[in-house]
Amino acid sequence: MMTSEEGHVVIEVHGIRVTVEIDGEAVRCSPLPGTDPYPVVGDRVVVTAPNQPNDPPTLDHVLPRRTVFARLRQDNTRRTRDGAHEHVLAANVDTAVVVAAVAKPPFHPRFIDRYMVLAQRGGLDVAVAINKCDLGVELPDLAAYHALGIQFVEVSAKTGAGLDQLRALIEGKTVIFTGHSGVGKSSLVNALDDEAAAAVGEVGGKRGQGRHTTSRSSLYRLNDSTAIIDT
After folding, report:
1. Half-sphere exposure of residue 94, counting CA atoms within 13 Å on the CB side?
2. Which domain holds residue 77?
3. How many domains does the chain divide into?
4. What is the pTM for the complete model shown?
5. How confident is the prediction along the chain (231 residues), in pLDDT tens digits per residue?
6. Which residues pair with 153 in a beta bridge?
7. What values do phi and psi take at 163, rounded to 5?
8. The CATH number of the domain where 47 resides is what?
9. Cα–Cα distance between 149 and 65 in angstroms, integer?
10. 179, 217, 185: which is closest to 201 by C-alpha?
């Protein structure tokens, strides 16, 4: 058995390909057919050694989840945790950092509200990072969120402004960067971790809408106690 009492952490899921961290190494594993729940990034899993030297290890099962970050859905076309109602994106996360931009794409409070609800529903704490502060656009009124005790940090992935405050906010935690396409989630991951190489897209079109570029979910370790999940 290639296992421990706490299991091994899933660090990347790309379609049916699942990568697990084993003894500090990224190892591609094969989930058993019918594995339920299907592993997501942040899951702790039990892995067994392969029967043949050239075969990948087998991901035997997923250990109980402490928290989940999930999107609510109305169809049943993808693997879900609760049938047609929930698509789990990450597990065992401490805090959801909702990333928004002051502009490009435009700031929409309803997106922050939506992600806050999803995070709190799954048992996560919530913080907000306002990115692209280098654009010189006036910050939106955030008084309502401050009144709720939500932590905010103003950052620029481009210039590095505010990154020290963001690092302090997430230190010692496993966090997920979530938010609307184009707000700079992956750019922030890359700014915090030079080795992350998270995929970054452009914002285009007359409306300045973001193009979704993250086709896989990945966990990046900043240090022994801090990790970021980018979905």
Report:
1. 11
2. 69-230
3. 2
4. 0.84
5. 455 557 999 999 998 889 999 999 999 999 988 899 999 999 999 999 888 888 899 999 999 999 999 988 755 445 544 445 789 999 999 999 999 999 999 998 899 999 999 999 999 999 999 999 999 998 888 888 889 999 999 999 999 999 999 999 999 999 999 998 899 999 999 999 987 666 554 444 433 444 444 457 899 999 999 999 998
6. 129
7. -65, -35
8. 2.40.50.140
9. 26
10. 185
The answer as to whether 2 is a domain residue is no
Residues 78 and 129 in one domain: yes
Do 80 and 45 lie in one domain? The reply is: no
Other CB atoms within 10 Å distance of the CB of residue 163: 17
Cβ(157)–Cβ(188) below 8 Å: yes
48 and 75 part of one domain = no
d(CA 178, CA 88): 13
Tell me the two tokens of residue 47.
């892995």
